[in-house]
Specification:
- This protein is α+β, with helices and mostly antiparallel strands.
- The protein is built from 4 helices and 6 strands; from the N terminus they run βββαββααβα.
- The protein has helices at 34-50, 77-95, 97-100, 124-132; strands spanning 8-9, 14-15, 18-25, 54-60, 64-70, 110-118.
- β1 (8-9) and β2 form a beta hairpin.
């Protein structure tokens, strides 16, 4: 019942839509440090704000990230994912030149695939706890 206290509204609808997203680095290279993950979170929060979405939880390990996103029904999830991955890849490669050496030929940070799961089946507290418990590199 807790998740229904945060019902969002638009002109013609009320909604509570959450998705659990997982992005993996290309070739599963273990390249992220805590500093990289902090910057990725900042970038992804900004992209979510542009889409009128809310990044509720973010964490990751050295080769993947987990996001819990609250999004309006007018947002196509595939377009949101495309922007999240594209903007973060471009900015990270510009700001951290050491990442470019891993992908000199591919010119991409993220794998072409991703996981998107509806977070309505399990209680959001369980999904949030799962994301918080990722083994983040120090």
């Amino acid at each position: 019942m807790d998740e229904y206290q945060n019902i969002r509204t638009d002109r013609h609808c009320a909604f509570v839509l959450h998705t659990h997203l997982v992005f993996v680095t290309k070739y599963r290279h273990k390249i992220f440090t805590d500093a990289h993950l902090k910057r990725i979170e900042e970038i992804m929060r900004a992209v979510c704000a542009d889409f009128e979405c809310e990044l509720i939880e973010f964490n990751g390990e050295n080769n993947h990230v987990h996001l819990l996103v609250n999004f309006p029904p007018k947002v196509a999830l595939s377009k949101l994912v495309n922007s999240l991955k594209g903007v973060s890849s471009r900015r990270l490669r510009q700001e951290y030149p050491e990442l470019v050496r891993h992908y000199w030929r591919a010119q991409r940070l993220w794998s072409g695939s991703y996981f998107a799961g509806s977070a309505g089946g399990a209680p959001l507290s369980i999904v949030r706890q799962y994301i918080e418990q990722q083994n983040r590199p120090l």
